[in-house]
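Write out this protein's structure.
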Amino acid sequence: MASGHSGKDVEINSIDSESKHMHSDSSQAADARLDKRGIPLVPQPTSDPLDPLNWSLWLKILVLLQVSLLAFLALFSASLIVSTHKPPELEAYLGYKLTPNHQTPAFQPLSKSLHKDLTETAYVTSVFIAFVGASSLFWNPIANVYGRRPIYIISISIAIATSAASGASSTYGELIAFRALNGFFGGVALGLGSATVTDLFFEHERGFYMGIYTLSLITGGHIAPIAGGYIVKNTLTWHWCFYIPAIITAFMLPLFVFTVPETLYSHSADRVQRPYGSWMENMTMRGKAHSTRSLKLIDFFRPIQMLMYPSVLLPTLYYSVSFGYGSILFIITSANIFLKVYKYKPYQTGVLLGVPLTVGSVLGELVAGGLSDWISEKRALARSGVRKPEDRLLALFPAIVLLPLGIIIEGVCLTHKLHAIGTGFGIAIASFGLQIATTVVYTYTAECYRQQAAEIGSLLNFGRQIFGFCVGFYAVKLGTEVGFQSAWITFAFINFALSLPVLALIFVGEKWRHAMGQPGFHRDL
């Protein structure tokens, strides 16, 4: 495999370390390598061609795209059958009993096939979401010792089998069990992906490439309603909602095995030896990726330990709520509300929901990653090359305004039965803001604590999945009781309120980080 220093705007130069101030996490060696603007690279790459920071750009992109596709498939699989509860409050709001044609794509046929009521059938999706949230808490500590590559390969293999088994299930118990296993194995990339991006790219380019990953992650759940609606329209059975992800993932497995090397690599000054001695050892996974490390029970509780740091806790809370109200809220309420307001069939609901969500995410990412990197680089130049993670939070301002604004617009349009274009416009604006928030939060937290990127990825994944899981239990009920306009405005203000502490980090985040110091674990990464 080709090697050589790469990455967007990177070139190799040497300068005396005293001529430039460097980020606190960067190398203090006499000769520092610079980007093309003359700012020291962070982290400093080694001279080892197996160092992922030294890989050719095409190889980095190949790895990034495959990990991103795995993250896409995880939420795509979760949302392809969108399950919603059918509480009495909703039927009271609608004014009549819900019929099979009133359900979200493929959900009612599933309920009928399993001989279960709609509430019990909803657990098919709920259990998947819950196990996706918990999966990274288990797998990421193992990946920090034995490497990312074996964890990905194992999880992909079992995810294929459990997704196919879900489609072939004939009883409720079988389906619940296989969906739980599929979430546990299929959701690995949702927690480990951000750490993989951190392994591959320098700080000054990380916003752009992290954005590719987060865009894939989010749009999986956004495109799924469109596909699910047309599965129903074209008379495919609910089984195909599980077979399709299994088939796509099966095509990925051999490509992943033969083209994705191990990315775990130590850049600590006191590293005893490099993880692998050759490309062959890397690809054949001989031994642990980090031979001086061992797995300890405390490693599984490290994500909880990271919550003591405000630069992790506050963005995690904000992002979890942002995802819940900027994506999940629309997905779980759209089918029944769009039926009442617009008399939409399932496939029409899928289009009105999926298209604005996807378009908003894509347009948001055109702004998010590049803007974040540009702000970080410009402000670093003004400080003679000193980068500060808090600079990236300046790119969050559009999200703070647009995400709650989009939620409010949809609530107003639904309450007053305005044209569907207005509803779609509100969804797209919220999705635009959510994408910016996602990329900025992932990039900022990883830049604050690069060596703990896996733990932070676990927290963000857990918070997103669990809060999104909870939204389904109260959103529709609150909307039917107080009106959807009032309920949606309430959600918007909760989201806005949680953004304020994150903005405060722009002014006090650096001070707090220095006062608390770096975590005492993973210093050898």
